[in-house]
Amino acid sequence: MTDTPGWASPSSSEQPRDEARPPADAPAAVPGQSVPPHAAHPAPGAGHVGAQYGAPGPHGQPGQYGPYGWGAPPSPKPGVIPLRPLGVGEILDGAVSTIRTHWRTTLGLSLGLAVIEQGGTLAAQLAINGSTGNLTQALAGVVVLPLNLLIAVIASALLTMVVSRAVLGKSATAGEAWREARPQLLRMFGLSLLSGLIWGGIVLLGFTPLIGYVVAGADEPAIVGLLVVVGLLSVPAAVWVGVQLSLAAPALMLEKQGITAALSRSRRLVRGAWWRQAGINLLAWVLSFIVSMIIATPFAVIGMALGFDHLVNEAGSTDASVPASMLVASAIGGIIASTLTIPFSAAITVLLYVDQRIRREALDIELARAAGLPEYGGTGWSDPVGPNPARR
Length: 392
What we know:
The protein is mainly alpha-helical. It is 60% helix and 0% strand. It has 14 helices and no strands. It has helices at residues 88-101, 103-128, 136-143, 145-167, 174-181, 185-215, 221-232, 234-244, 248-254, 259-270, 274-306, 308-313, 324-361, 363-370.
């Protein structure tokens, strides 16, 4: 299969070209004015794929959209998003459309991973239940943290491949996604670890004075309060860095980047669009949280009803255990919620990455060609992340 430059090629780590699109204050074309021959078919990086419409036809004939080429046609949409800079609603709709259109792969992958994740958590809860009381949930979370990290890495890697195909209107089976993602899984795991260490290190650095003060045995309330404020100031810094690095995973997977190159790539893509990236990520998180609560709450109520007698009998006991029925019901609710929210979150991240590259580098031109649209030079679908000896 042929390579699609600018989508997954090794050279994709180049600096984003903000000048790829005409500035907002550029003068509009004069109706009926002749255009250079090359304007009818823009070169890569010359603007989004709708730019070639609205110009007069060859030999002064009327354009496709009006006698003078006025008006812009709908941007081509071979897959789940139109190939142009995306609005917030289009990104959210693209994520939902990916799940709905390719539900066999997206929900199948997320269901399998959710069962493993919740199964591991449930096993840990049942193993340590009884002697830990209210700390059961927290301790179980610590025990299964490595498993959850591994599941998150695999989910992000596989679903990134599925969403990248969905953008072009093509589907990918779980086996195809695994074959494409497998060479990058180790790097993806390293990226997740390094990103977590960066965020956690920033917060830990902020709270280090407080930790040192308390360990030293001092207990002056005013100083402790001041050091708590100092520590809390590190949280916005960690969030700022987290958003800067939020596009590193799709950059690593789709461009076959290394870990440090992917982090740098994400910073360059987010530069100048931090608030937009943060806002859309926050909105996606809120929506995922709401969906999770709607699904999990009935199962929690059912679990409490089934374990009511046990809770009454164990009331006041220091080593009270959580009823197994509550843990099982909570795990079932978690599986259903994760099955829906895992692919949604992964799709949002990939579509934000695609949107930034469309805005910065006119990636929509290359995607249109990769989708096989003949008016953009496509002669058939070319796999933008398919096997290519040059990438190995």
